[in-house]
User: Fold Protein kinase domain-containing protein from Cichlidogyrus casuarinus.
Amino acid sequence: MYDVSFLSSIIPYIVMEYIPFGELFHLWKQIKHFSESLCRFYLANIAITLDYVNKQSIIFRDLKMENLIVDAFGYLKLVDFGLSKSVKNVPHARAFTICGTLQYTSPEMLSSRGYSYSSDWWSLGILAHIMYFGSYPVQPNDKMNTNQMYSQIIAHDYAQIGPPELRNMLAHLLNKDPYKRTSLSTHMASMEFFKNKIDFDAVLRRQVSAYTIER
Assistant:
């Protein structure tokens, strides 16, 4: 996130990249829901980033709109690794702490039986729902505890509305069985929601112009 750092005689300086558009959350609050093409572009952005983070043996654990910022070219950057967990030398790459933001939390995290990288991809599925429909699929109230939230998540059908291609993607990302859940950007790229509509490699190379995408 920073381009250069240097030290004067007494003060350290960090020169950071200028991010003019702030959090994705603020953009969403203004628009409330994104067009399908913009959802597709943002989800490809996040999937590529999340894939890289997981391949570094890190579970991010707090994927949400507030932790995604929009750069000067309209691309997303993932920020705030405060809750992330390195599982490089951990058996089965598992973590057990319940953390993050409740609306985005995976069922396996709430179950306290342990979770791994696929928990992050559940959060991506929640993000996809919010971007497209403009609302959280399950919204906890102030009095709801983790057991009650877990029960609501298990009972909810996440792929009941929307066009077939979207429902298929949500069914894969929000599969309640973490071992069957889509958890690689390469798998996402082959889904009908993305196939022949956006080039993940072009997004990775930043060759897709965000400003030509319909809002």
In short: The chain has eight helices and six strands.
